[in-house]
C-alpha cells in the first residue's frame, strides 16, 4: 500500500486561498484523512506560472501531516511529450515525491496523456505522471474507489477546497 495524498486549491472571489488534502492508500484510495489550510494571501494568477500560485498552498496543507509517498494533483504533470513542466512537475521538483496529474479536460499539446474512462463515463480523464509510469498512474486512477468518472477521493478534495466539505 502506498500512502497517497490528493490535493486541490480554490481561490474564492473574496481573496485568499483554500487548500485541501485527502489521504488514503493506493491501490484503491479510500479517504482516511482530510485536511484544509487557509492562506490569507496568494500570488496573482500568471499564465504559464500557475505553480507559483499553487505551490505555497500545497505546502501549507501538507505541513504537519504525516508524509505521503505519492501525490495526486488536479491538472497535468507535463504539458507535452517533450516534458514542458505543468503543475505536477513543479510539485515533484519541490517535494521530491512521485506525482500523478489527473486533468478533467484535454490540453492540446498533451498528446502523451493517457485517457482513462471510469464507470460508465464517455468522457475520459487525462493522466500524466512523474516518478511512476503513465501506465501505472492510469491503472491507479482507474482503480480508485468511486463509481463515477471522478474517483471519490478527487470529488471529496474538490469539495473541501471549495469549502463544501464541512
Q: What labels describe this entry?
A:
seven-stranded mixed β-sheet, 166 residues, single chain, alpha/beta, archaeoglobus fulgidus dsm 4304 fold
Q: Could you please describe the fold and organization of this structure?
A:
This protein has a seven-stranded mixed sheet, with helices on both faces. By secondary structure, it is an alpha/beta fold. β6 and β7 form a beta hairpin. The protein is globular. It has four helices and seven strands. It has a single domain, classed as archaeoglobus fulgidus dsm 4304 superfamily (archaeoglobus fulgidus dsm 4304 fold, 2-Layer Sandwich), CATH 3.30.2170.10.
The CATH architecture: 2-Layer Sandwich
Number of strands: 7
The helix count comes to 4
CATH class: Alpha Beta
CA gyration radius, whole angstroms: 15 Å
Strand order of the largest sheet: 3-2-1-4-5-7-6
Shape: globular
Question: How far is it from the N-terminal to the C-terminal residue, by CA?
Answer: 28 Å
Short description:
This protein is 25% helix and 27% strand. It is of the alpha/beta class and 166 residues long.
